[in-house]
Amino acid sequence: MTRYERTAWGRRYESADGAERELWLLSVNSVKEDRPIAEIAEAAAVTATGIPTQAAYQDIHRPVPGNTRTPRRVRVVGIGCGSGVHAVLADWDFTETLRQFEEHAKPVLGRVVENDVLNPGSTCTGCEGLVGCELPPRVPGLLGVPGPRRPRKRRSVSATDLRTHARCPAQYHLTRGLHLASDEPESEAIRRGRAVDNWLNEQHRQRSCHGALPTDDLPGLSAAERQSAFSMLAQHRRVCPLDGLRAGEQVCVQRRLAAYDPELDVVLIADPDLLYTRSGGWIWHETKTAGHRLWEGRDLMEAYPQLAFAALMMSAGVPGGDPRRSRIELEVLYEDGARCEEIDPWDPDTLADARRIIAGLAGPWAVDETYAPAAGDHCAGCAVAKHCVAGRAYLEAR
Ligand SMILES: [Zn+2]
């Protein structure tokens, strides 16, 4: 028999007479704005019909003492812990709550229960079934570093995580471990890069980026940034890898790839900008925007450790495909040009370089338990600077 538990997590409140219940859903900075109605309806339904419980690792939820009377009214409230703003997401009487559940949540729950497709990713870190699961593919030793001296919680890691940790361990911990990054606009280069990525992703989902260039749908950019982003998009269209791709080939935009190192107990995560098949092989395509030709002359994988990470993943069989036809591509967009490079992850020298670069980044990351700040010019524009004493002191002393 399969037992299903429906739970809702948050701050729980009820009136003294038990007639009203509230569930507060906390988010770190501002109120989360994109909760689907199915999620809100389900949260309200569990608040209305559920009982207080406690969960333990590898156990079912067990009832704990508390009120089990059915409430007359239920509210679901979103709270932004950083902004102090709240939003009432649902404020329904008991009957209306059940009606909303029937209409919005129940069909979704039905699909969830029927769907047995595995979807490996960073949530594997909290999954009790990972050890017995056929996915994600096992890649023991891929990071090339010894395990921690003592057991620690399973973690996920991406190339961006490793690079952030190498720049500043505190920034890594505050953004990735504690999720404290603010929504404040970051540096111009990051904003512009993100706008270009978003537009390209949108176009590539339709397999072509030759439609009209965006006019005002590059949100958050100044006029000068927009001009520069337009120039980069125009450069991309000259070299778009999807041009001439046969109709039967697969194209995946930002497909999440995962692999699992059982020795380190780490889930490896990558989101290639573009992943597509070509004659039986997979092409892992990354696009970068750059203001200057800074990296030229440097080793490509040193400049972009993401490529080294991709080489290791690909050579370990992720995402699969015919090795002789699978490649990693880098496209760098400037305002006045574009440069495309190709990396063969089966070339022994390339692979050795990739191992050295990733092990160099992963070594300090794997054993770090203190995440000391490494203040520097990168503190300007850091999304967690306001939580970092050392970073603020550095910026004030500049
Ligand atoms: Zn394109």
Descriptive notes:
- The protein has ten helices and 14 strands.
- The protein has helices at about 35-50, 95-115, 160-165, 170-175, 190-205, 225-240, 300-305, 305-315, 350-365, 390-395; strands at about 10-15, 20-25, 55, 60-65, 75-80, 85-95, 155-160, 250-255, 255-260, 265-270, 275-280, 280-290, 325-335, 335-345.
- The strands form four sheets. Strands 8-11-12-13-14 form a five-stranded mixed sheet, sandwiched between helices. Strands 1-2-5-6 form a four-stranded mixed sheet.
- A hairpin with a 4-residue loop joins strand 9 (about 255-260) and strand 10 (about 265-270).
- Helix 3 packs across helix 9.
- The longest helix has 21 residues, at about 95-115.
- The model has no long low-confidence stretch (mean pLDDT about 90).
- Bound molecules: zinc ion.
- Zinc ion (ZN) binds near residues 209 and 236.
What would you say the CATH architecture of the largest domain is?
Answer: Alpha-Beta Complex
Q: CA-to-CA gap between the ends?
A: 65 Å
Mean pLDDT: 90
N to C succession of SSEs: EEHEEEEHEHHHHEEEEEHHEEHH
Helix content: 25-40%
Tell me the β content: 15-25%
Bound small-molecule species = zinc ion
Largest sheet: 5 strands, mixed
Number of helices: 10
Low-pLDDT parts are none
